[in-house]
Amino acid sequence: MDITKSALKGKFDSLIGREAEIRRIIQVLQKRTKNIPLIIGESGVGKTAIVEILAKRIINGDVPQSIKNKKIYSIDMGALIFEAKLRVDFEEKIKSVIKNLSKEGKGRIILFIDNIAGLVKYTRYLGNMLYREKVNCVGATTFFEYIKFLEKDIVLNRMFQKIMVSEPSQEDTIVRLRRLKKRYELHHCVNLTTGAILAAVKLSNRYITNRKLPEKAIDLIDEAASLRRMGRDYYKTEVFDKIEWNLIQLKIEREVIEREVIEREKYNYSKKILSILKNKIKEISKECNSKKDLLNGASAYRIIYGLEKKKENKQDLTEEEIAEVLSIFTGIPIAKILESEIEKLKKMEDVLHKRIIGQIEAVHTVCNSVRRISIPGRKNKNKICSFLFIGPTGVGKTELCKVLSDLIFNTEEIVRIDLSDKNYISRLFFIRPFSVILLYNVDQFNSKILIQILETGIFIDNEGRHVYFRNTIIIIITNLGNEIIKRLAGESYTQLNFVVMELVTAHFNPDFIKIIDDFVIFNSLFINEINSIVSIKIKKLKTRLAKKNIKLELTQDVLEKISSFGFSPVYGASPIKKVIQKILEKPISKAMLYGTFIKGDIIKVVLEKDQFVFRKEILSQNQ
């Protein structure tokens, strides 16, 4: 592919902010020997775009005399690999391509090889071919591919001149998107607002963690503009499809139950649910027909296919639409995405106290630290927030991590790393920004590495690979002082803090103690607090059953019995989850499977002769 020809036709987007990298490529290309620049960077940071802008500069004459009038060709790796059946065939094809370029180009062609590490994987003689034929070449690869395929090859490593391309900052990405604004406005016939650009950069950086800027921000704008271009009324067809699918499901369910009524007369409940289903099918069929009539109308046709005022009135692409597309990508509700950081910080304690029981001081300490780190105008914007959680098993340490992650980063998924695992370093490379990182078994870990991470926010391994911990909350869990905390249960928090901190200071490295933002001590739990935790867990189960139109009711003695079974002096509140699964979830699930409990039922759980008894009532229409 002739890249300079495509650049002449204006097919490439504008690129700014890579001046240093482009100058370095030109400088390397002009060298007499070792003149192969190798662009190293992660996917999406703009490696290919740098070569495209170099082609534009060649066309405009904005390059030194030695490079003027040259052409840049890219090699189609996929076609070569597809056609070559054996490695020998592939090497011959590569040799033929390079030889022809040298002969026909007469020194006027620069060969661009994207994913050059993959090419080296298939041929060992690439360096010799390029050197012998004296072909100017620019290569591009990712950092991990370079480490795997190129770094160990002494000849190639000496021949290539490495040019590192890092992910641009949010500020640089915003400038680039402003430069691309007109292209996307013309293509999608929308007005790209400043708010949409800022939202695309900020939200993609925060929530799309497996890709890099600027590509992920550009794709987010492209998707949102495409949604706007289609028109929101297009999704009337989507609503219709959902209704129609619901109708099909109900009809299938009706057929199954009709078969049961015929084959097994003992299932009397089937006759009742069958009549309910038939009425529901009539209602949805009526709604489905009305939607179909609307979509068959000429006005709906014009709405769906955008024939009305397609280009006359350009509409603004807003921050809300960017968030809507991101919600589709990630599954996070739009309201959470758009909620401001200030609002989250304001309601922190109220949200945490609803799920973290009996740890008033611990919640207060965490909230104060997160607010302090998050205040606007601080010098180190990427500083991480770190805590050492101290307390017995089953008092809410991990639960607080989940709730904090959900509140700050809109997901309960936390990154767990066992520091006693020999392969913990490989786990570090899966760290994503804007997440809560839970580290445990810290006593068996190299404290110097941990201090480096907490102080700089970066981990660098022996091969020079970087892992960034910026914009994360690091929580280190230790069971140090368990016996002391249990012994001092009921005493004042000040006294407990004093005793435990003396033990922590004596146990850990002073440099480690100095770098931790806050030490959070968790109290032991009492039976009243266990009752509250059980109520929270039962409420979640009720919510899940309510989605199936089933109501769950428990008597007070049942709740107290579950609390007594769920509390352990050794494991705290940890057994509660398994107790609820055994006593409630498994019997109810089995009864629902066999049809004892169906949609529209009330499940009452009572205690009779120290046994849990499940009773059924049918919900009234008003309920």
Describe this structure in words.
The chain has 623 residues and is α/β, with parallel strands linked by helices. The chain contains 29 helices and 17 strands. Strands 2-3-4-1-5 form a 5-stranded parallel sheet, with helices on both faces. Strands 9-10-13-8-14 form a 5-stranded parallel sheet, with helices on both faces. A hairpin with a 2-residue loop joins strand 16 and strand 17. The longest helix is centred in the middle third of the chain and has 29 residues, at 268-296. It is globular, with a radius of gyration of 32 Å. The chain starts with a helix and ends in a 5-residue tail after the last strand.
List the SSEs and their pairings.
Layout: H1 3-8, H2 19-29, E1 36-40, H3 47-60, E2 71-74, H4 77-83, H5 87-105, E3 109-114, H6 116-122, H7 126-133, E4 136-141, H8 143-150, H9 154-159, E5 160-164, H10 170-188, E6 190-192, H11 194-207, H12 215-230, H13 236-263, H14 268-296, H15 298-305, E7 315-317, H16 319-330, H17 334-338, H18 341-346, H19 348-355, H20 360-374, E8 385-390, H21 397-409, E9 415-418, H22 424-428, E10 435-440, H23 447-456, E11 458-460, E12 466-468, E13 472-478, H24 482-487, H25 493-507, H26 510-515, E14 518-521, H27 527-546, E15 551-554, H28 556-566, H29 576-593, E16 601-608, E17 611-618
Parallel strand pairs: 1-4, 1-5, 2-3, 3-4, 6-7, 8-13, 8-14, 9-10, 10-13, 15-16
Antiparallel strand pairs: 11-12, 16-17
